[in-house]
Design a protein that fits this description.
Layout (H helix, E strand, L loop, with lengths): L5 H10 L4 E5 L5 H10 L7 E6 L3 H6 L6 H6 L4 E5 L6 E5 L2 E5 L5 H4 L10 E5 L3 H12 L2 E2 L2 H15 L30 H6 L9 H14 L7 H13 L2 H10 L3 E2 H8 L11 H15 L4 E4 L4 E4 L6
Parallel strand pairs: 1-2, 2-3
Antiparallel strand pairs: 1-4, 3-7, 4-5, 5-6, 8-10, 9-10
């Protein structure tokens, strides 16, 4: 399945669980884990096991988060396990599982850009080899306790003082200059209704709906936000983007459509099949929608200006 759809595939799998969910990946990031847990039904009879590698160097390099311990312990009937030699990626819900290359991170699952090229294949747990592998895995894991978490945290702190952080495609930071996503949904005012499910493909132009879903996957807003919380969340994510920061800098003195299109051209993914002019038109709508008090359009000139009130 295409990389940007892997996250949806995983969410669909775990949302069907009735008895047990097993999440296995060497690298697990908090946001991705929380998103998966939110999709799992809350039921007294459903148990969740999460297995990760959790080496100190993984914490130092940013490919795995210590905070996943709290995320798991906050969920009823959930347990975090550690296997320091883990390399497999395996996700099971009852008798179905996904097996492949994808870690439990935003970039691996298509929720953050740039997205990794990954693979997950759905298999039936009736296969004896899969059952035997899972049994072997769980029998060789160590249950994570507060004491073990603190021990790994101390080891990671000591290691961080000894060597620099290594870069990895699984490291995710909003201020990372490689986070070069640019919104593509042409109707930002409809994004919240797509998020809540009020709008679907039957009520929107198909391409606009697909772009809205893509943008939401990348933005990753938690479930259950009010419209005000949603707007604040998206605005915060937008203002951290390198492309928006460039536009903000240019707009202090006014930036024309032609200038802005040239400015953002390098951020456009070729697979999106959108021109710099159209991409700027969309980004401008987003900035006007999510920062309504900060930007105005010079009447008759289509020049975006920041920081002053303009009359018609």
């Amino acid at each position: 399945m295409a990389g940007e759809m892997l996250g949806d595939q995983l969410l669909e799998l775990v949302s069907s669980a009735k008895e047990r969910v097993v999440l296995v990946a060497p690298f697990i990031k908090v946001d991705a884990l929380q998103r998966v847990l939110d999709a799992i039904p809350i039921s007294a009879g459903l148990h969740i096991d999460c297995v990760t590698r959790w080496r100190p160097e993984d914490i130092v390099d940013g490919v795995c988060d210590l905070e996943i311990f709290e995320v798991i312990t906050d969920r009823e009937n959930a347990q975090l396990w550690r296997h320091p030699n883990l390399h497999a990626k395996f996700f099971r819900a009852d008798q179905s599982c996904l097996l492949g290359s994808s870690n439990l991170t935003g970039r691996a699952l298509g929720w953050r850009l740039p997205t990794n090229l990954e693979l997950l294949v759905q298999l039936d747990m009736n296969l004896h080899e899969l059952q035997a592998w899972e049994t072997s895995l769980m029998s060789s894991c160590v249950s994570v306790t507060v004491e073990l978490r603190d021990q790994i945290a101390h080891q990671a702190a000591d290691l961080a003082a000894q060597r620099p952080k290594k870069t990895s495609i699984d490291v995710e930071h909003d201020d990372d200059p490689t986070f070069r996503w640019i919104p593509l949904c042409p109707s930002p005012e409809r994004l919240f209704k797509v998020y809540t499910g009020e709008l679907d493909e039957a009520k929107m132009v198909r391409s606009a709906f697909e772009f809205a879903q893509r943008d939401l996957r990348t933005l990753g807003p938690p479930k259950g936000y009010s419209e005000e919380q949603f707007l604040e969340y998206v605005a915060d994510r937008l203002q951290k983007l390198e492309v928006v920061q460039k536009v903000v800098s240019a707009s202090s003195s006014g930036v024309s459509d032609t200038q802005a299109a040239d400015l953002i051209a390098e951020y456009i993914d070729a697979s999106s099949m959108i021109s710099p002019t159209d991409a700027w038109r969309i980004l401008k709508r987003w900035m006007m929608h999510f920062f309504p008090a900060q930007y105005r359009i010079e009447v008759g000139q289509e020049i975006l200006v920041r920081g002053r009130t303009l009359s018609s």
